[in-house]
Write a structure and sequence with these properties.
By secondary structure, this protein is an alpha+beta fold. The chain contains 14 helices and 13 strands.
Length: about 400
């Protein structure tokens, strides 16, 4: 979806993108725009961002849950996450025992929150009184945030869901009141969870090793993955792939898989039947969420530097990679100035092997212009920190 014809810029297109990538990570950082909006924009172009809220909070065809991060997911995939939620906190780990003990000690707060939601929901965290008899202990920012932690644990267990947002704050309600009647309810074993999730990961990644699968979709929740992959291979649902180094011509070590349904696509790509595009990616885009994989496949190192001390930043606080066809050719350091209605491009960086041509520079400029239009900017403002070979156009 980052090449070829764009999906339609409507509700169907949004759903198609989320199905294709498996999960849409939520990050509210708004230096440019929240990540979930940017990931969709990179694929479908300019669209009405209110459509996403409609699909989540009115139509309930999407829901929020934990995938490889807090994400937006299709309700049709609810059984995968429902089964995982039911098993959450039931193990013998120290963490699970701590949660169970703390929840038991705060049963009064637990029941109070459930009752308030049933009577008055949806409600925000601030709508509840803290009736905890035992504080949540943590070395981090969650210490003593008892209402927040109860809601988090109820969310992790599938008892409550995010029902909306108000001024950036989550609104909570009972899961039974949010999910539509048509929600799939089948009960899945862990083998079936991994069976379904691994196929989603492979299709989203295109080609994947077991290590890459483990880091995608239901991150680090793939017990007996090797057994499931062998089962899928024997059924012909996935096939082995060989990746050859472009310079040495040596095959990469390890096992690599591609989904059988994507073999026709692979054949078209091999025949050169594809339409490259130039676009910008969110720092949390699924394509680069696994930084090691990104470097392995594209020789492109990416680091999110917002929380890096300013003197130690190499590129900028909120850098967006430039994807040109099947290559990362650079990155930009943008900021949306909402008061002035302009996108400020603090810097544009080119990779050492990026083509320094007017055609490529224009493609980058067009992508930046498209971003500005999506953000509602009236102006694009460039600094002098632009590659020499692109300067005639990026100004």
């Amino acid at each position: 979806m980052l090449a070829g014809p764009r999906p339609s810029a409507d509700a169907d297109g949004i759903i198609d993108v989320i199905r294709n990538i498996g999960c849409l990570q939520i990050d509210p950082t708004s230096v440019v725009a929240p990540s979930q909006l940017l990931v969709l924009w990179s694929r479908i172009g300019n669209y009405d961002v209110e459509l996403l809220d409609t699909l989540l909070w009115r139509d309930h065809v999407l829901f929020e849950n934990w995938a490889h991060a807090t994400s937006i997911l299709p309700v049709e995939d609810y059984p995968i996450f429902s089964a995982m939620m039911q098993s959450w906190g039931t193990g013998d780990s120290e963490r699970s025992q701590q949660v169970r003990s703390w929840m038991k000690a705060n049963e009064v707060l637990h029941q109070y929150i459930i009752t308030q939601l049933r009577r008055k929901g949806p409600l925000s965290t601030g709508d509840f009184k803290d009736k905890a008899v035992k504080d949540w202990h943590s070395t981090g920012w969650t210490a003593g945030r008892n209402v927040r932690m109860i809601l988090f644990f109820l969310w992790a267990n599938g008892k409550v869901m995010v029902a909306g947002r108000q001024r950036g704050q989550k609104l909570w309600d009972l899961t039974e009141r949010i999910l539509p009647e048509w929600t799939p309810r089948e009960s899945l074993s862990w083998n079936e969870i991994v069976y379904r999730a691994s196929q989603k990961a492979i299709r989203a990644l295109g080609v994947a090793s077991p290590a890459h699968i483990k880091q995608y979709y239901i991150r680090n929740c793939y017990p007996d993955l090797s057994h499931v992959l062998a089962e899928l291979e024997s059924e012909g649902r996935i096939v082995r792939a060989k990746i050859t180094d472009s310079e040495s011509r040596r095959p990469w070590p390890g096992k690599w898989y591609i989904h059988a349904d994507d073999l026709p696509l692979l054949e078209r790509l091999a025949a050169g039947d594809w339409e490259p595009r130039t676009t910008l990616l969110s720092p949390f885009d699924n394509m680069i969420s696994n930084r090691k994989r990104t470097e392995q496949f594209f020789s492109y190192k990416y680091r999110f530097e917002l929380y890096v001390q300013k003197p130690k930043r190499r590129y900028g606080a909120y850098v967006m990679p430039i994807l040109h066809g099947d290559r990362f050719i650079g990155r930009i350091d943008p900021k949306m100035d909402r008061k002035q209605e302009r996108v400020v491009i603090n810097a544009v960086y080119a990779e050492p092997d990026a083509p320094m041509t007017a055609e490529v520079a224009q493609a980058v400029a067009d992508a930046i212009e498209e971003l500005g239009a999506f953000l509602g900017a009236e102006e694009i403002s460039y600094s002098q920190r632009v590659p020499e070979g692109w300067r005639g156009i990026l100004q």
